Amino acid sequence: MSVQLRMSEHIVPLRIYITIFLALLVGTGLTVWAGGHDFPGSLNVIIALTIAVIKATLVVLYFMHVRYSSRLIWVVFTAALFWLGILFALTLSDYWTRGWLPIS
Amino acid sequence: MEHKASHPALQHHFENLEQQREAGTLGMWVFLVTEIMFFGGMFLAYTLYRTKYPQAFASASNHLSLPLGTINTGVLILSSFTMALAVYSAQTGKRRGQIVCLALTLLLGLTFLGIKAIEYHDKYVDHLIPGRLIPGRPFDASGVHLLPGAAKQNVEMFYWIYFAMTGMHAVHMIIGVGLLSVILYFAARGRYGPEYHNPVEISGLYWHFVDIIWIFLFPLLYLLGRHLEH
Question: Are residues A36 and B227, on separate chains, in Cβ contact within 8 Å?
Fold first, then answer.
């Protein structure tokens, strides 16, 4: 039985954990560095959010083992992002478009 | 292959430990989905008010301590790493490593909360606790250096959102510390090994989730106006 158990559970090697940890530290350093530089337009926000999304993805895929998890976990997690997308898209399509048309 | 109740941790309503593990992990993920929606609402509020009052938000953000925020980000990432190692130790049957890693995670979580408390105290000293939450010490933005175009009255909104988001995050950290204390207690008694370690695994999921929230909070709250301050 224990053989059957170990086959179904993927054990992430130590080397990957260390790599992800270092990548997260580098990402933090990068985002602090980029935060102090004045990039044109709204590039500062885009850089900060891109780094944050990459860091979060690394945590989800490797620390939280989603990369090695069943399809069901993928569906549940993607559903969360999908509903979060609806929350933002519908609300912002209201707030950010106010004043586009003159009110008679 | 069917040896029911072959492991003392196997609950009677599961066929085997594997099914029990899958169910537990799925349950934690469903809970985390609700957590994503919960924090999502606050991130949405942040987005709306930040786009409405960009200069005031940048001014208020610059008043936060970047060194303390950066150190706390490092502390939390390190704690996520030690948490991942605790799960790894349980999976590979390294009992001592499991206990050491859980204890380290717990300590780092407490370090984060301690640094957060120092930051909150600094805000208290600077009269930056919003509204009239502190009796006899109403919010006063006089100490905040205003960037051009920033209206003083809008600085307070940043601090409402800052305290709501970091406060809820801190509450989750406190819950996580409680959770890890229980797990550490059972780990020390030798309950978790290669066959059964789902409680360690799903506590880890929760801990990593709280780390992810901070990964977004840190740039959004601490870094958004740094480049304008020259």
Answer: yes
Helices first, then strands: H and E counts in chain B: 6, 0
pLDDT at residue B64, rounded to an integer? 95
Contacts of B92 in chain A (CB under 8 A): 11
Is B7 domain-assigned? no
Report A:43-82 residues touching B (Cβ under 8 A). 44-45, 48-49, 51-52, 55-56, 59-60, 62-65, 69-70, 72-73, 76-77, 79-81
Domain that holds residue A15: 2-69
Which residues touch A36 (CB under 8 Å, ≥6 apart)?
B226, B227
Whole-model pTM over 0.90? yes
Closest CA to B162 of B228, B75, B65, B230: B65
> How many domains is chain B built from?
1
- Nearest Cα of chain B lies from the Cα of A104 at a distance, in angstroms, of 23
Specify if B2 maps to a domain: no
How many CB atoms lie under 10 A from the CB of residue B110? Answer: 16
Q: What is the ipTM of this complex?
A: 0.91
